[in-house]
Amino acid sequence: MIDLHTHSLFSDGELIPSELVRRLEVMGYSCVAITDHVDSSNLDFVAPRLVRVARDLNQRQSVMVIPGVEITHVPPELIGSLVKQARDLGAKIVSVHGETIVEPVPEGTNRAAILSGVDILAHPGLIDPEDVKLAAERGVYLEISARRGHSFTNGHVARWAKELGARLVLNSDAHSPHDLMTRQFARRVAHGSGLDDKALEEMLANSRDLIEKIR
């Protein structure tokens, strides 16, 4: 299993990175990205620490740890500069907190994230089909989310991604140990999104492809 969207106590998660990774190791995961919430107030604090812990853990356990960030609730016009800063600070996966229907994310965030060249647009909500098309053209992955609330629009995202050729990844958006996905639960999330077992395997393959791109 692979999960490219998790949180530690560097933002609003419950676990330090080492415990998060250890729990996934026991569950048989091959790779995890730790993508804590950031804006201009904490990006320069969070990203270097995740880079450091990834370096340390990757020398000593079986789960590949990828340092990342999730740019969250910032004005759309700031997203581009924060994406660049995150990459300069060593974040290997840069995601943006998309326009979920359960939080007041600024309108225009989805489009700004795609134009900024993020790797993953997390839980993009009722994303406009034109933005789905743009994501397909620019190679931005759209997320199918296992997170409570964010998952309400998975069917919409899956439908338009399938129609317009955007690539999907399935992530937990885990904040606590109870959020970590087994393969069985991932399958249920996929089915609940209107996707079959073949699509689940495609989403996992997309995650592997993204990992290869950033290595």
Outline of the structure:
The chain has 215 residues and is an alpha/beta fold. The chain is 44% helix and 18% strand.
Describe the structure.
The chain is an alpha/beta fold. It has a single domain (2-214), classed as TIM Barrel. The chain is built from 8 helices and 7 strands. The chain has helices at residues 17-26, 43-58, 76-88, 109-115, 129-138, 154-164, 183-192, 197-214, and strands spanning 2-6, 31-38, 64-71, 93-97, 120-122, 141-145, 168-171. Strands 1-2-3-4-5-6-7 form a 7-stranded parallel sheet. It is globular. The model has no long low-confidence stretch (mean pLDDT 97).
Write the CATH fold name: TIM Barrel
**Shape estimate:** globular
The tally of structural domains comes to 1
CATH architecture: Alpha-Beta Barrel
Strand fraction equals 15-25%
The whole-angstrom Rg is: 16 Å
CATH C-level class is Alpha Beta
Kindly report the average pLDDT value.
97
Strand count, sense and barrel status of the largest sheet are: 7 strands, parallel
Secondary structural class: alpha/beta
From the N-terminal CA to the C-terminal CA, the straight-line distance is: 18 Å
Low-confidence stretches: none
Strand order of the largest sheet: 1-2-3-4-5-6-7
Classified in CATH, the superfamily is Metal-dependent hydrolases
Tell me the series of helices and strands, N- to C-terminal.
Answer: EHEHEHEHEHEHEHH
